[in-house]
Specification:
Its EC number is 3.2.1.4. By secondary structure, this protein is mainly α. The chain is built from 20 helices and five strands. Strand 4 and strand 5 form a beta hairpin.
């Protein structure tokens, strides 16, 4: 699909991204003989449904009548009251009851990118994916309601972590933390701008009024991020660290935010910003981690499309940077630096490693799409890497996650015959309100946390941190590094599963 540079054409194309006709072009899928065959080792459609359903289990606020994970109930209904602002809603990021704005914004950006690239393939799941995005963007609009202020966290993380209680029972302080001109947070602000901008593309056709609101807010929030520079964990260190400290700095978010605003608005301002600041905001070539903290690789892939598909020559360097990322992942290639477990799983770090597996798989499938549209390949020091090679690498990672691994364990709760039973998640591990209507006090919950029993509530679709570097997984509730799910593990997986389900004729 070759895009022209005219603003009108871009608007029209983005408006109709939900149409499979537009998105299927440039999808020659995994090896051609597999296309629409029965040889898929997994039910990617089932996994897709569950990967989106998970977000309903993470909801904070007043739950809607069509809530499908029914063991959850309303929670955090007075959030924001401490600062006289309505901060009800949004998501709990993982297994605790704090609303951390930085990973929530990244989750929203990645859910939106999943829909932008692969929404046209999602069929019946598209509405559920959009509902998951809107639950986040409604909240992000609340946290950015005042100019030059962003409410970036609700809940005292240290006090929350000293309790084990259901979100419905929370009695720990719902303290509110913010960034503003005096205590800036370019990282969380620019990521929030990226989320709003990306989501504006998702709703451009189905809800143009909402889409315009999102993009207007994104413009304002990005301006604040850029004009008042600083890392949010400088001013809020004792509240956000070590949970979601900004380790990579804020330059990556400024580039990422500008890239999304350029994509959402097509304003020359943002292209100029990227051209002028790209070098200073860019990272070293060997920086190949992509996740809630570090956006460099994502920005490179996103900007490579502007060069490959829209032919913006001024951004030609980003293809080279994106290629370097790909080459770092190819075992045996001259510039390969990635580590894999004996069973074949990409292994970045022991804490929540699966987030890097899902984000990398998504980037490989997305970059393969861009390369296919432009009839290009990747050259790794003489080794030619085709788009189909990228698709196969991504598929192997997703297949490992779904059960093709030494333990024959699906790391998605509720998918397949064997999956984690004792995930590190308060609501899942404690009896539901229906089963136990009386409040479970702060410390009383630890008897459930320390129990060997399986969790009573199945958090369907939750993807946990995953196995260690030797493919081992103890399935212990106390082991948060391996057993805790999070929204930012699932968000990029949604797009990858949509692509795979379509490729194998399951959608």
């Amino acid at each position: 699909m070759v895009l022209s540079l005219s603003h009108f054409t871009l608007v029209v194309l983005f408006s109709y991204f939900a149409s499979s006709l537009l998105l299927c072009h440039g999808f020659p899928a995994l090896p051609q003989h597999h296309h629409r065959s029965r040889s898929a080792s997994h039910n990617y459609r089932d996994a897709l449904t569950k990967s989106i359903l998970f977000f309903e289990g993470q909801r904070s606020g007043k739950l809607p009548s069509n809530q499908r994970i029914t063991w959850r109930r309303d929670s955090g209904l007075s959030d924001g009251a401490a600062m006289h602002v309505d901060l009800v809603g949004g998501y709990y990021d993982a297994g605790d009851n704090v609303k951390f704005g930085f990973p929530m914004a990244f989750t929203t950006t990645m859910l939106s990118w999943s829909v932008i690239e692969f929404g046209g393939l999602m069929k019946g799941e598209l509405q559920n994916a959009k509902a998951a995005i809107r639950w986040a963007t409604d909240y992000l609009l609340k946290v950015t309601v005042h100019p030059d202020v962003i409410y970036v966290q609700v809940g005292d993380a240290n006090k929350d972590h000293s309790c084990w209680e259901r979100p419905e029972d929370m009695d720990t302080p719902r303290s509110v933390f913010k960034v503003d001109r005096n205590s800036p947070g370019s990282d969380v602000a620019a990521e929030t701008a990226a989320a709003l901008a990306a989501a504006s593309l998702v709703f451009r056709r189905s809800d143009p009024t909402y889409s315009k609101l999102l993009v207007r807010r994104a413009v304002r929030v990005f301006q604040f991020a850029d004009e008042h520079r600083g890392a949010y964990s400088n001013g809020l260190k004792k509240n956000v660290c070590p949970f979601y400290c900004s380790y990579s700095g804020y330059e990556d978010e400024l580039l990422w935010g500008a890239a999304w605003l350029h994509k959402a608005t097509n304003y020359p301002t943002y292209l100029n910003y990227i051209q002028v600041n790209g070098q200073t905001l860019g990272a070293a070539e060997f920086d190949n981690t992509f996740g809630w903290d570090n956006k460099h690789v994502g920005a490179r892939i996103l900007l490579s499309k502007a060069f490959l598909v829209q032919k913006l020559q001024s951004l030609h360097d980003y293809k080279g940077h994106a290629d370097n990322f790909v080459c770092s992942l190819i075992p045996g290639a001259p510039f390969s630096s990635a580590q894999y477990t004996p069973g074949g799983l990409l292994f970045k770090m022991s804490d929540s490693n699966m987030q890097y597996v899902t984000s990398t798989s998504f980037l490989l499938l997305t970059y393969a799409k861009y390369l296919t549209s432009a009839h290009k390949v990747v050259n790794c020091g003489g080794t030619v890497v085709t788009p189909n090679r990228l698709r196969n690498i991504a598929k192997k990672q997703v297949d490992y996650l779904l059960g093709d691994n030494p333990l024959k364990m699906s790391y998605m709760v509720g998918y397949g015959p064997k999956y984690p039973q004792r995930i590190h998640h308060r609501g899942s591990s404690l009896p539901s309100i229906a089963a136990h209507p009386a409040m479970i006090q702060c410390s009383s919950g630890f008897s459930f946390m320390n129990s060997e029993s399986p969790n009573p509530n199945i958090l369907v679709g939750a993807v946990v941190g995953g196995p260690d570097q030797h493919d081992k997984f103890p399935d212990q509730r106390s082991d948060y590094e391996q057993s805790e799910p999070s929204t930012y593990i699932n968000a990029p997986l949604v797009g990858a599963l949509a692509y795979l389900a379509h490729s194998f004729g399951q959608l």
